[in-house]
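ASSEMBLY PREDICTION REQUEST
Request ID: AP-0331
Submitted by: J.K., bench scientist
Number of chains: two
Total residues: 1290
Priority: normal
Notes: Please return the full assembly, not individual chains.
Input sequences:
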Amino acid sequence: NEKLMLYKLQLSHRQDSANLLVFIALLTLTILTIWLFKHRRFRFLHETGLAMIYGLLVGVVLRYGIHVPRDINNMTLSCLVNASPATLLVNVSGKFYEYTLKGEISANEISEVQDNEMLRKVTFDPEVFFNILLPPIIFHAGYSLKRRHFFRNLGSILAYAFMGTVISCFVIGMIMYGCVMLMKEVGQLAGEFFFTDCLFFGAIVSATDPVTVLAIFNELQVDADLYALLFGESVLNDAVAIVLSSSIVAYQPAGDNSHTFEATAMLKSFGVFLGVFSGSFALGVATGIVTALISSDFTKLRDFPLLETALFFLMSWSTFLLAEACGFTGVVAVLFCGITQAHYTYNNLSPESQDRTKQLFELLNFLAENFIFSYMGLTLFSFQYHVFNPMFIIGAFLAVFLGRAANIYPLSLLLNFGRRNKIGSNFQHVMMFSGLRGAMTFALSIRDTATYARQMMFSTTLLIVFFTVWVCGGGTTQMLSCMRIRVGVDSDQDNSVSRGQHPSSKHLYSRWTFDSNPFSYLKPILTHSGPPLTATLPACCGPLARCLTSPQAYEVSFRLPSVGTLTYGDVTVSADASGARASRGLGPLCGVTSDEALDRELAFGEQELVIRGTRLVLPMDDSEGPLAPALPPPPSGLDLRRHRE
Amino acid sequence: NEKLMLYKLQLSHRQDSANLLVFIALLTLTILTIWLFKHRRFRFLHETGLAMIYGLLVGVVLRYGIHVPRDINNMTLSCLVNASPATLLVNVSGKFYEYTLKGEISANEISEVQDNEMLRKVTFDPEVFFNILLPPIIFHAGYSLKRRHFFRNLGSILAYAFMGTVISCFVIGMIMYGCVMLMKEVGQLAGEFFFTDCLFFGAIVSATDPVTVLAIFNELQVDADLYALLFGESVLNDAVAIVLSSSIVAYQPAGDNSHTFEATAMLKSFGVFLGVFSGSFALGVATGIVTALISSDFTKLRDFPLLETALFFLMSWSTFLLAEACGFTGVVAVLFCGITQAHYTYNNLSPESQDRTKQLFELLNFLAENFIFSYMGLTLFSFQYHVFNPMFIIGAFLAVFLGRAANIYPLSLLLNFGRRNKIGSNFQHVMMFSGLRGAMTFALSIRDTATYARQMMFSTTLLIVFFTVWVCGGGTTQMLSCMRIRVGVDSDQDNSVSRGQHPSSKHLYSRWTFDSNPFSYLKPILTHSGPPLTATLPACCGPLARCLTSPQAYEVSFRLPSVGTLTYGDVTVSADASGARASRGLGPLCGVTSDEALDRELAFGEQELVIRGTRLVLPMDDSEGPLAPALPPPPSGLDLRRHRE
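STATUS: Completed
Returned structure:
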């Protein structure tokens, strides 16, 4: 019996390996095809769209091509007990076997459970998406944010992400409720569908995906502000949507199954939203700052890039785990951790670690993303409880369209009152058109497919994702040319800031930003970019400031005026799927000052990055390679070596 | 009920997150301490030893410090059925819950299962080690092999790894059998202990760990041949030990429980060993070659480093899965895949991908290794079925010592008959002393702790690992100076080969190597290093050879005579934990020819690597950075740009 049991476990392990192999083969195929597309400069189908197509094909084959006979090892025994513990010990003729709870199965599933062994095998636990695949994607989104343009458009981005998503959620929820009511009248509804379900649907399809469109934007070098608006919105509204949907689930009126409106429950939901969001935000930012502190100059961790990278990876991962352990949302925490890491920690890392971390998360993001999209394709055929209801689907497409419109147009109108560079109507149309749905929408909808309402939502969501990725994603290039959006814009050209004159620190921090008072004092402490604290704090705090400022911050600050004749390149963390640096502009140095003080501050942080970036190019140690002596010294009087100490 | 159930699942998820967080915190702490040690140049305790100490401390705290009360959610229900299927459906008052089989539990465990919730929570499924943690470690070992010295000592390494491990296994097995017999006489044995168990113990403690000692060797730059011998032996004997142990388990005489010797069963075991080993070997090499082909010049994949890296990662992973799905040993396949990737694919990759893949696997290796070692420390207190038997432990330490001696000394004596540069007695003593036991031994011993014999083995193995890592690992520096081993040796200085004269290809391939006939024809096809096929194949095969040889191989071959005055650096894939390049010699170019033709071939392959390596240092594109125009052209007449095409 023991032997048989071992054999069974082995067999199941071998099958698992084979199933995982199917996905790896799928990914490999996708990569090879992407390469072919890139090679031939074929731009109409993005890699995610491609991954979905391959997934679909495999799904068809698994569903109709392969018939796995009923598995004798997997027989089902019914055993009557009066509770469902997490661990079950089963006594089989004197031997005890341990079973762990996997989940509830609806009664109508039971008959099917055994028939489609193969389809069941390639089905992942939905929690895999939230705990393994989404975190690297979301972290990468935060880490690869182009900070300067993001913070310049922060107000608008927050408006779109928070108000916009809530508006979209409620508009879609209302329309769907109307649709469901109509369906009930016509007799097309085979199960219960409450208003909270409609709102939940609104929340999950309000999460727009940054991947597909922005890859194209990046390649075409679309206007940086449009890019920042769309990217910032997509990234943040994922966070809003996930918290919003969990708050809606938490909405539970006093009478357990009444599903009617109740003010206290509504307030409670709102409280949950605020609590979870701010908790996740705080956690993410906190871990980012702790990492920045650990990797700052006070420790000399930067001499060991491997340790640094490992630490960076572990700290970012622990944000996720910490948030989950505290009952917050790990994905949201990871997003803000990524933004904080990009803003503070990145500047502290050694050049090698900067490359390593970027490349590592780029790779993880690439793999996770393509995996999710090919799984999405697969699910259309492998999922066994699809409910495709034509009326619901038509209603949903209409609602998604109207919801997006109700988000973008009114908010843009409002925002344009306050903005100096207005969001033009062509920008608005592009934003309207580019609201693709992707990984987050899918992950949220597959998380719970137990009820009839949820199954119908899942099927409809899949179709929405397919449509938006293929049609909207494929039509982006046409849309851009149709709307006469500038392409081929170097994102840094129009913002070149004088480095010739060091602006007075008062002026530098005069506007509210992420780094404004009191945050402005954080950056010089956490990194060694930015003006030293001695310049920004009042004179009375002199000794404290000197103690908290690293020698390098002094150096950078005091050396800057002499850099006068050096042209500079601007390195930004790349969001480009092909791994090439996204933008590396050559802004000629001009004596003119820009009026945007904020720009200066943010660009200033990046300048520091460039100075370090050059270390990668110039071999500076004698051990660096045989060619080193043949190289001339750096062109300016800057002694880059002193940076390393 | 459904709500409660969801809540239970959520709670269990939160606990899992918290437990994983403990390990992440442990790793973070380890990294910070390692950094401190490296910073202070403290060399007596390696990071793995440190990780174990931290693990021990956490184990003590969990065991004696935290008392988690009996968990009400985890109650155990006994339910009598007559089989143990992989999936169990439990009918709880009309609702069906799905349970999955976790494993058998021995009767005496049942009483304890509930008491130590916390300890149970931090216990991983042993298969995690084999399927998640070991593969990156082993792959990295293969990928970071210093190929030149490895292949030069291949014969000796194979002898130590195959014959040595088998000798060690049987010697230890015999001694332990004697010890067990004695214990039975004295009445110290509380359960069954068969001869096969003894042999199994011999197999698992014969796997030596390459990590700790070699990190020190690397840092001190110990003699390259000694390094190659020890590293090669440690890496390969892991593979031998894992297959050997599974063959011993497969040894089953006709009468199921007789455990006596039987010739046919022995033969069957031997067949299993050969089949599994050669199958895994073939699979690993095959995947490596396929990857090399895909990333070769015929496809222009190297223009997209991200795709290339992703492909490399997926192919290497699929080796593991494929081997497991076929019933071979994934870890062994991954080892040979790594060696093949380093030998063939690495040369095809773009410089960026070379760095990326190295760094990626370095990071994975670092994390996995430290995780295993800290888990090892933890297990000493968290594992609940330890059987510490003083007699068995003393016997085991003696047996391990004698087993290692019976491996090294007689084999060295034999090998010295055939070797030109003899393995000196001081080398032999160091090899004897450096036989640390580590991750593989641990993973093999924790895989099955169901019986009394296995539990006793596991406890003893833990102690052996602790002792060897702390004492032998810590004493390596002393041992080296005591044995008067040369340190600070540049591994390439004594092997500098003339590139001024291109040796005749006949002479080049005159000795049997990995790349000897017919393998020699493989390398020019799979990579574009090495002499073109047109030079190595007979004249009649001219057209075929021209067709199979990439234009770059021609270029390299025909250009070499002109490189005459260029000094060269030798880059090897780094095995250094700190991420720095392991060895980068500056061999001055001399006109003298070395007598080792093999050296030339291997160095030749690495020369190609260097030429490409310089591309990292020299900015060659206009987009590369603002400083590019200021740099002089490369010192030699080589047009490096043409490499890229």
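REVIEWER COMMENTS: Chain B touches chain A through 117 residues (CB under 8 Å).
SIGN-OFF: pending second reviewer
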